[in-house]
Design a protein that fits this description.
- Four copies of one chain form a homotetramer.
- Chain A has 248 residues and is mainly alpha-helical.
- The first copy, chain A, folds into two domains: 2-123, Voltage-gated potassium channels. Chain C (Four Helix Bundle (Hemerythrin (Met), subunit A)); 138-244, Helix Hairpins, CATH 1.10.287.70.
- Chain A contains eleven helices and no strands.
- Chain A is flat and about 75 Å long.
- The two termini of chain A are 48 Å apart.
- The relative contact order of chain A is 0.07.
- Chains in contact: A-B, A-C, A-D, B-C, B-D, C-D.
């Protein structure tokens, strides 16, 4: 019995296991949609009742799933303290502890449960590639994050000295200027803060010429690392084939 | 006779076939221009008459072309239900069914007929390369789209909690906040919505540091895949040469 | 005599040739600066007089240089109708024909003369690499430009239908909407035009998800092509060495 | 004694050296935080006193460190005129010379001392890779900077002619227009300056189509160069191994 259940709950290669997984995934998406709809203003009383009832059903089903997963697991404690175990608990816990708004916000973490769907669609190979790529560029990305942090600090301090006198209510302190630095260097440029003095504009020009690259290089690094990881995988595959048929 | 017409309509390697294709392409561009001009306000009555008359001519010519393509086709049904067959029909159908504005908007799909021009300019090889590249990065791009969707949801839910109290009319619900998330993560930053609380700004900073990469990586992936596809094509070409002249 | 002058004017490997070239480059930069300063409002009469006098000197010197280049050239007509020959003429012609503002604006083309400086700094190899890279990605870039054009048209027509009723003064016609499409797809996002309806916002979301990639991919293509061109050059260099010392 | 101190101050492989380095790094971060907090408006008198006292302690400790570094150095003058020597001096000098606000701003350069932290976290290899990558793309990046400068000048001059009459207070001169060119070509797009005439908008469209690539290509070049540098390092490593064990 327990063995049969495990095949359904933990395995997703069998037909029943797939149906179980698709159902849970579908329920997660529905519960996230309900969660989002609840934030809409001017909802009708009837809609709210329906949404709360649906939430009740979701929590019951997710709780059953959680208990089931602990029950069928060969090592229950390992599951409980695993990443997915904690996420699974966080997505039902708020309902039981209290109904205060703050805690219910934790429901948003249900979104992480969607990652489980990746198992279904069999992206193991692509995910493995990401893992490889992450290992390849780890050092560079950390280095770039440090450089970015230093660069944002310098940009904030610099613009503060140029613009503070002209726009004291916007560039009030280095912390306020950091908001400008982030919005500018990522090229978002909302337009709520921008330099107005000639000095500040020239400083922005300088900062942008160097900074735009710094912020976009990490993405380029990850992209090239992924293509490298693909090559490594292809190489490994060929290697395996050669070992299997050595007298070719 | 039918054979001769097919050489003109379907083939574009012959001189007559080329002239036919260039003429149709030119007509498509003209009809799209006319379509755009019709949306201009304060047009003179005379201009409207001319445009409508031109549209009439276009529809007649496109209809003749459509009938011709069915007539010369070896397998008419295959053409009718092919991608270009449907596009060709969509670009003339609205005129015959009704003159309601909504349906006439379908004329905009004529733009897809321009892709046929690619056959003319002989971009088969480059197109094949794109096909190869798409196959190489398919998995990663889908993975990134899922991650992007999850990321946008988390960003929307997060900013909603930070900014909803301060700007209830802008960050009204998670759906309204999603607009901010999209505009920010793609670095468009119109400036119609932006966080004003310190918490919201710090959250934006965090979201941008991770998110800008996520949105720009797919473009990098496609670019590197295309360069990889070019190498594969070059390899295939060399391979072919070697087979042709094995004793070199 | 003519031979000696040619060594100074056309050659930049000799010491005198270098001094001549540096002097001309310096003069071009100065004349561009003067040109920019002349657009400043509220200039003093004295400044204007100085700038006009400087412009006079520049034109005289550039004219002398132009005549000199024709004189020393082995094939004067070839020089006159070459790219640099025309640019050289355009940078002095406006002064002689008239003093109307419109024609004097042609002086801005003097900026192209700066490219000559590249010869000085010996970037021939890097330039050759760009030439190679351009040849490699030519097809893809043209393909992407066509796709971009089609995409901008579709985005403009789409947003026009969504937003025209809500903001008739901004999304007046497809042409007006094209401005929005360009500013959005390049992620500039000035904030002077943006959708306000739910339909328009969802359409923007869709357009951005696909479009941001389309606009940034060409840059990625050029970057990878340049790195490929570098490899080809390195390969060629090694090949040459091998030929020179075959018994290594 | 001096030898022992040198092991602590200059070396960071020993335990004591690491503690010393971590302490200095921590102090730098704290002093930068204090520096930023001091720019906040409406600080309480008590907070200011505490911050000034903390600054005094920092300067004393940094001065001691500076003297120590000169003392233990085998070649004191070399250290004093090295990059880090000057940075170290700049971070304490303002305090001693005067208390004028302008000079105290130099404290911001303390941020550069953080780079020393890189030695600690052992990023030598990644840093070396950056050095290699910089050497590979040096020529292209300089070429692109020149092209960018020319492009910004042309964009500024162009938009000035299109928009000056319509918006004389924004596009006052070519210098004022350069601010627009920078903000647009980097796709920041604050929205404080944008073209309003049809000519200006079409010019912007043209400029963006070419310009966006020019600004983003250098980042792509650096990213691919870094991946190339990684390959070179891996190659070198393999080469070394082969030399060590030649009869494998």
């Amino acid at each position: 019995m327990k063995e049969k259940l495990r095949l359904i709950v933990e395995d997703n290669t069998t037909k029943k296991g797939k149906i179980f997984d698709y159902f849970i995934q579908f329920l997660i998406l529905l519960s996230l949609a309900a969660f989002s709809i609840q934030t809409l203003p001017n909802l009708k009383d009837k809609t709210i009742t329906v949404l709360e009832f649906f939430e009740l059903i979701c929590v019951i089903l997710f709780s059953l799933e959680y208990i089931l997963r602990i029950y069928v697991s060969k090592n229950p404690w390992k599951y409980i303290f695993s990443f997915y175990g904690i996420i699974d608990l966080l997505s039902i816990l708020p309902f039981f502890i209290s109904h205060s708004i703050d805690l219910r916000a934790l429901r948003v973490f249900r979104v992480f449960r969607i990652f489980r769907a990746l198992k279904l669609i069999r992206y193991n190979k692509a995910l493995h590639r990401f893992h490889l790529a992450a290992k390849i560029v780890k050092e560079e990305v950390i280095l770039f994050l440090i450089v970015t942090a230093i660069f944002i600090f310098l940009a904030s301090a610099g613009i503060y000295y140029f613009e503070n006198k002209a726009q004291p209510e916007v560039f009030t302190s280095i912390f306020h200027s950091a908001w400008w630095a982030v919005v500018t260097l990522t090229t978002v440029g909302y337009g709520d803060v921008y330099p107005t003095t000639t000095g500040g504009k020239m400083f922005t020009f300088l900062i942008l010429m160097i900074g735009v690259g710094i912020v976009t290089i990490p993405a380029g690094l990850v992209a090239t690392a992924l293509s490298k990881a693909r090559e490594i995988q292809a190489e490994e595959k060929r290697e395996k084939k050669r070992i299997k048929s050595p007298r070719k």
